[in-house]
């Protein structure tokens, strides 16, 4: 069924915060643009799409998202292109994944046309918030919460969809030391690991805190059943280069988030002629490659960092160093290409960019 392009009601702020932001010093997720998208769902349908001044929400103490965790989100970025247009990387994929998360969490699905058009209008309104410095971008956070004022375990009958934006610098400024986690679990088969649900990230905080106390900045998660199979790297997908082969855990399992950045990376790698293997990846294989020197590269792939080089991998109390960053042919070439692609400096050969 086709969906008409929505009419969006805009209420502009009378007090822009733009001049108060130091764009030469942008921490991640601390500053927020002047406006936000807000759309409510009730009585089985979505209401009017609105763009309003960024402001606090007023919630009933019994708001069901606060009690039963019906909350999902997405993350994507906008950048200023070389021609002055605002470029957004693959937002259609975010809209699709957002609804996949909504379905798994028994939440209302939002028509992709509304998701994309409201985002486009918001970015046009707040275009001056898109930073232009190296490694800077406007981070975009669409999210949805259940808003029934009812303390009872059932899918909510009301929802609120919002999009907020934040000018940001780089997420990781240095290569990341990681630890292979074999006690705690990010996701189990049959669970909500594939959904971008808020609770998934809450559950990761304690084991990440313990790892940080040991000197690691992130975890490599393993499967819940045996803790022998590699799954994700912190809040990102993980990619290894062993003997010139790009190797990454398969997304066929419902414990692994379908990463838009990773899918894009693999498509680029295939276009460049690299051999790619999406399959089960064992801890034994990774440690053996680290020991015998065939591990050429390893990195996390996600929206916030795009590519986060892994500096070392800890396992069972032993740290294994990876090759120096400057020697890593694949990830360095890939990071430069993806950066140029998102800024419109190279041909949009895969038709991945939405222009505003």
Explained architecture:
With 356 residues, the chain is of the alpha+beta class. It has two domains: 8-170, Aminotransferase class 4, branched-chain amino acid transferase, N-terminal domain (D-amino Acid Aminotransferase, Chain A, domain 1, 2-Layer Sandwich); 176-342, D-amino Acid Aminotransferase, Chain A, domain 2 (Alpha-Beta Barrel), CATH 3.20.10.10. Helices cover 24% and strands 30% of the residues. The protein has seven helices and 19 strands. The protein has helices spanning 64-68, 91-104, 112-125, 198-213, 260-271, 283-292, 329-342, and strands spanning 8-10, 35-42, 45-46, 49-53, 71-73, 76-80, 86-89, 137-146, 159-168, 176-180, 218-222, 230-233, 236-242, 245-249, 275-279, 295-302, 306-315, 318-321, 353-355. The strands form two sheets. Strands 1, 2, 3, 4, 5, 6, 7, 8, 9 and 19 form a ten-stranded mixed sheet that branches. The chain has a six-stranded mixed beta barrel with strand order 10-11-12-13-16-17, surrounded by four helices. A hairpin with a 7-residue loop joins strand 11 and strand 12. It is globular and about 60 Å long. The model has no long low-confidence stretch (mean pLDDT 95).
């Amino acid at each position: 069924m086709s969906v008409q392009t929505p009419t969006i009601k805009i209420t502009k702020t009378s007090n822009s915060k733009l001049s108060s932001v130091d764009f030469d010093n942008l921490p991640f997720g601390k500053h927020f643009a002047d406006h936000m998208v807000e759309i409510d769902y009730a009585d089985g349908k979505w209401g009017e799409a609105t763009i309003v001044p960024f402001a606090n929400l007023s919630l009933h103490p019994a708001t069901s998202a606060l009690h039963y965790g019906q909350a999902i989100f997405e993350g994507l970025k906008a950048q200023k292109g070389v021609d002055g247009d605002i470029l957004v990387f693959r937002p259609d994929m975010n809209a699709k994944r957002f609804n996949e998360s909504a379905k798994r969490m028994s939440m209302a699905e939002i028509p992709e046309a509304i998701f994309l058009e409201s985002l486009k209008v918001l970015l046009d309104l707040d275009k001056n918030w898109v930073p232009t410095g190296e490694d800077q971008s406007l981070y975009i956070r669409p999210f949805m919460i259940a808003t029934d004022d009812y303390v009872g375990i059932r899918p909510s009958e009301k929802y609120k969809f919002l999009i907020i934006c934040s000018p940001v610098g780089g997420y990781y400024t240095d290569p990341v030391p990681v630890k292979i986690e074999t006690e705690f679990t990010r996701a189990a088969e049959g669970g909500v690991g594939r959904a971008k649900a808020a609770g998934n990230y809450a559950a990761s905080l304690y084991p990440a805190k313990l790892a940080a106390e040991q000197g690691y900045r992130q975890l490599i998660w393993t499967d819940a059943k045996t803790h022998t199979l590699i799954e994700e790297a912190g809040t990102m997908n993980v990619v290894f280069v062993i003997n010139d082969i790009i190797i990454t855990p398969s997304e066929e399992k419902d414990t692994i988030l379908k990463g838009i950045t990773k899918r894009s990376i693999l498509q680029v790698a295939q276009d460049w002629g690299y051999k790619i293997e999406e399959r089960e990846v064992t801890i034994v294989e990774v440690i053996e490659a680290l020991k015998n020197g065939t591990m050429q590269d390893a990195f996390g792939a996600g929206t916030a960092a795009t590519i986060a080089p892994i500096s070392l991998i800890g396992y069972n109390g032993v740290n294994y160093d990876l090759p120096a960053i400057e020697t890593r042919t694949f990830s360095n070439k890939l990071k430069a290409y993806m950066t140029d692609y998102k800024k419109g400096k190279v041909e949009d050969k895969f038709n991945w960019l939405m222009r505003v």
